[in-house]
Backbone:
């Protein structure tokens, strides 16, 4: 087995480019979205998916809501959403999502969903 001499290894730290840096979640818009999500007991893919852009999006007053809970029945290798047996369907969730969207005063809303393979289609 060939060994690389220690002197040949470059341990110099390279500065990350600005586009790769995660911005801290700050500002009034972020606080507003955070409070709406908390008060209405909502889920977002931003949080459940560990999105590195959450601070930027919430800071702009936007979020992607996730319905049918925050536990998925599938285990996709590319996704950070928790996998397992989800809780029962929260039938009041659509009303709370609609109310939060109204309070955000956005022109459009993005809503996604976990997979719920245990539920019938339709």
Residues:
């Amino acid at each position: 087995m060939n060994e690389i001499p220690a002197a040949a290894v470059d341990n110099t730290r390279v500065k990350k480019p600005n586009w790769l840096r995660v911005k801290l979640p700050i500002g009034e818009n972020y606080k507003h979205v955070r409070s709406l999500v908390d008060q209405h007991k909502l889920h977002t893919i931003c949080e459940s998916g560990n999105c590195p852009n959450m601070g930027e999006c919430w800071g702009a007053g936007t979020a992607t809501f996730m319905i049918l809970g925050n536990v998925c029945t599938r285990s996709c290798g590319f996704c950070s959403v928790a996998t397992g047996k989800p809780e029962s369907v929260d039938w009041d969730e659509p009303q709370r999502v609609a109310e939060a969207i109204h309070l955000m005063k956005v022109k459009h809303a993005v809503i996604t969903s976990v997979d719920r393979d245990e539920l019938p289609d339709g």
Notes: The mean pLDDT is 91.
